[in-house]
Design goal:
- About 55% of the residues lie in helices and about 0% in strands.
- The chain contains 1 helix and no strands.
Amino acid sequence: MGWLLKLILFFLVFSFIFRTITRFLFGGMIRQAQQQQQQRQSHHYQRTRPSDGNVNVDYAPKKESRKKKSSDSYKGGDYIDFEEVD
């Protein structure tokens, strides 16, 4: 029973030390990457936002000419009487 307690204690201490070292080594790099990402996003937002409050439309669909085609006026076909065959 004593070895199980030692094993659990070892894993707890090891995980605490590992998290502390990892946070110390990689925390600065992660923080720096987050700051760079925020700067890119804020720069993009400031660049695309119009200063006078107007809205700019980048894409407007082309207007299609609505000519009546013979297929558009087609309402259906002829009625065919159905008979069930045994």
